[in-house]
């Protein structure tokens, strides 16, 4: 197996056993189409560029747990609570996660302006750097309904300190897409993005679009596409992709391609079929427990890993059932911060908060023993 370098996964080198990479679209053409930004805020763009961009090449993705971080707001104004955003990122880093993801579903990306997205990512990056976690990569959710805006979000992610972009397929005009539309979308984004991208397969968030293993395996050969996240929960698909691309695992460097599960309730299953790890919202509540499953698997303690996976899966059902409202409520109950989601998401009443707390109770008690 070819060793993975310390740089972000190189363009077009993942699959020597597969056909040659497709020829990338002319970068000059892509650049000419997508060169004009309608979202540039003059002073902020300059400030964002100061965020340690030179370190991108020093932050490779490694097998493990990545947490899509919660975005926190002041309860009275719904303005960003930057202090809590930074402190939460540090708490997760100290728990041993492999990296963080901003602008995901847990981060309420759909509730944020471009300016706020950049500020959240920059705050996260700076908070990590300030306490010595310069090496920890930040993946940034960059999905949008047009190719143009998706590329713009990738560029903003880079200037805000992001290392990689996590990209959902567009879905609003799903009925009008041709079979090749989504493949072309990811190829064009990969060509124009200044940072490597990961394909995000989450049918529940994109009108049921479920990218199959053949398409993802084909796109995995394409330059600047370095991984995937499968929130579809299909471990058969995950295993097919991981095998085809020789994905990185906790014990093998492989090709460098990251094949990630998208929920903590199938962490162990992901590892068994050859996956690279998990990008899981439950990590906001119990990062150490999520990391512990991978640690146990790495040293061959499968029975202990299975027992822990069962507890994590029960806790993850509380996260899945309660969504971001329940996750924030549990953070408030058990850790003293969390607040509320932006409207129109509801604020839980006392009875609902007690229900969310009970759902996470077993897992949080376990988490405290791992501190």
Give keywords.
eight-stranded parallel β-barrel, globular, 12 helices, single chain
Structural account:
The chain is α/β, with parallel strands linked by helices and 371 residues long. Helices cover 43% and strands 9% of the residues. The chain contains twelve helices and eight strands. It has an eight-stranded parallel beta barrel with strand order 1-2-3-4-5-6-7-8, surrounded by six helices. α5 links the parallel β3 (138-141) and β4 (164-167). α4 runs parallel beside α5, α5 runs parallel beside α6 and α11 crosses α12 (350-369). It is globular and about 50 Å long. The relative contact order is 0.13. The model is unreliable at 1-24, 26-33 and 36-50 (pLDDT under 50).
- pLDDT < 50 stretches: 1-24, 26-33, 36-50
What class do helices, strands and sheet pairing give? alpha/beta
What is the count of helical runs? 12
Q: Roughly what percent helix?
A: 40-55%
User: End-to-end span in angstroms?
Assistant: 36 Å
Shape: globular
Query: Biggest β-sheet: count, sense, barrel?
Result: 8 strands, parallel, barrel
Number of DSSP-assigned strands: 8
Assess the beta-strand content as a share of residues. Answer: 5-15%
The topology string of helices and strands comes to: HHEHEHEHEHEHEHEHEHHH
Radius of gyration: 19 Å
């Amino acid at each position: 197996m070819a060793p993975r370098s310390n740089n972000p996964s190189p363009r077009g080198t993942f699959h020597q056993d597969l056909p040659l990479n497709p020829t990338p679209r002319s970068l000059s053409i892509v650049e000419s189409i997508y060169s004009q930004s309608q979202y540039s805020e003059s002073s902020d763009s300059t400030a964002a560029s100061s965020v340690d961009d030179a370190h991108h090449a020093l932050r490779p993705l490694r097998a493990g747990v990545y947490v899509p971080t919660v975005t926190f707001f002041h309860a009275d104004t719904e303005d960003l609570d930057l202090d809590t955003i930074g402190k939460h990122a540090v708490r997760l880093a100290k728990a041993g996660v492999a990296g963080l993801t901003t602008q995901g579903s847990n981060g309420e990306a759909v509730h944020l302006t471009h300016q706020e997205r950049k500020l959240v990512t920059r705050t996260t990056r700076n908070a990590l750097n300030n306490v010595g976690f310069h090496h920890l990569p930040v993946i940034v959710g960059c999905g949008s309904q047009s190719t143009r805006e998706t590329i713009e979000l990738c560029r903003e992610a880079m200037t805000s300190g992001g290392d990689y972009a996590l990209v959902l397929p567009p879905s609003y005009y799903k009925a009008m897409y041709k079979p090749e539309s989504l493949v072309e979308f990811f190829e064009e984004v990969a060509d124009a993005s200044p940072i490597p991208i990961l394909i995000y397969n989450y049918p529940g968030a994109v009108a049921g679009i479920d990218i199959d293993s053949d398409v993802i395996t084909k796109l995995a050969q394409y330059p600047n596409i370095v991984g995937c996240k499968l929130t579809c929960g299909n471990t058969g698909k995950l295993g097919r992709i991981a095998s085809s691309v020789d994905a990185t695992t906790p014990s093998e460097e492989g090709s460098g391609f990251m094949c990630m599960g998208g929920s903590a309730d199938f962490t162990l299953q992901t590892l068994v079929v050859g996956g690279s790890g998990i990008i899981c919202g439950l990590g906001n509540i119990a990062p150490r427990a999520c990391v512990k499953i991978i640690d146990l698997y790495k040293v061959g303690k499968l029975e202990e890993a299975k027992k822990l996976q069962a507890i994590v899966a029960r806790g993850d059902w509380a996260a899945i059932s309660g969504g971001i409202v329940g996750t924030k409520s549990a953070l408030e109950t058990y850790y003293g911060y969390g607040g509320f989601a932006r409207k129109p998401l509801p604020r839980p009443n006392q009875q609902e908060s007690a229900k969310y707390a009970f759902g996470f109770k077993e897992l949080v008690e376990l988490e405290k023993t791992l501190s």
